[in-house]
Amino acid sequence: xxxxxxxxxxxxxxxxxxxxxxxxxxxxxxxxxxxxxxxxxxxxxxxxxxxxxxxxxxxxxxxxxxxxxxxxxxxxxxxxxxxxxxxxxxxxxxxxxxxxxxxxxxxxxxxxxxxxxxxxxxxxxxxxxxxxxxxxxxxxxxxxxxxxxxxxxxxxxxxxxxxxxxxxxxxxxxxxxxxxxxxxxxxxxxxxxxxxxxxxxxxxxxxxxxxxxxxxxxxxxxxxxxxxxxxxxxxxxxxxxxxxxxxxxxxxxxxxxxxxxxxxxxxxxxxxxxxxxxxxxxxxxxxxxxxxxxxxxxxxxxxxxxxxxxxxxxxxxxxxxxxxxxxxxxxxxxxxxxxxxxxxxxxxxxxxxxxxxxxxxxxxxxxxxxxxxxxxxxxxxxxxxxxxxxxxxxxxxxxxxxxxxxxxxxxxxxxxxxxxxxxxxxxxxxxxxxxxxxx
Length: 439
Fold this sequence. Notes:
Strand content: 15-25%
Helix content: 25-40%
Radius of gyration: 26 Å
Strand order of the largest sheet: 2-8-7-6-5-3-4
CATH superfamily of the largest domain: Type I PLP-dependent aspartate aminotransferase-like (Major domain)
């Protein structure tokens, strides 16, 4: 297909309309020193058959989780995705969807998003959820924006064990919004929350997979009048108390684990849920259920507090879209899983991760980064040599063994174990790691 499907006659007519003789004349205002000054060195075009063969050869150089047994995590996880998820989410009615500005033409999508919001509220124990955000990191930014609307409260306290990429995203947004995240030790005996603190942010399970003393930290946040914000793992809530029960005012998460493939890092979806008191501060859109003049159930965009809909200075967020397709996949996945399935999945992750930690820490000179700490499906170990080199050696043995960390002088490895991993695979990983460390 031509990039610009205009004939030479079309181009001449357009130039004549604007009083230009040629394309060079059209771009004559661009200074000479800013122009390329030479023809682009592009190869000759090839046929569709040839380019597909070249792309296939290039793609075959990749290794996937079909080739490697995946024990990597740190925010993207190899959970099982049932066939029904993308059989439904991949229907053309859904994968071409955008913001349903005309509800009379978008009842199907609106109903799915209403179900998504309802499931997120039930999952988190919170009162209200929006119709998704970009990803977990930007969902946390929106939680901070919501919290900082209280007059006089501008500071943001963040536990050191929150995902460092989330903290980096907060720094980026905060540079323009007038705040910088201040780190605190979640294990400290006392957390001082002054009258200028807007939000206290804790990740539970944290970036290292460890469970945090959330109730104590959120109690300190509330004693100081600040919002308590929890970053959570959606699939941990089959075995862990939900954010609402722990005292969170806002709960945010990355939704990749809910039926979305790892996909080299995206697209994912951001989850956010809050209390009713903050509903008008929520970013994005909230879908509501109503009835029409004939008494039939219908769905509408109840709140649209974005800059596209109201005055920019009154908008809750400048994020202009959402992740509808990913949210639809999450809805199908949660519907397929159900409460009992969620509990069983959580039990399997926790039990298999515990077994994996035991087997790996039996290896000579391998020890846990946080001895005695409780964890969910992820844990960090300290190796006797740089973790990156061990990770690379295990790739040659068929394992994506984990994510190397900067902790312990670069010898820490973060290992994730989902329900997909078998006892045999865990035993094989421990054996292969022992061989790699001994070589």
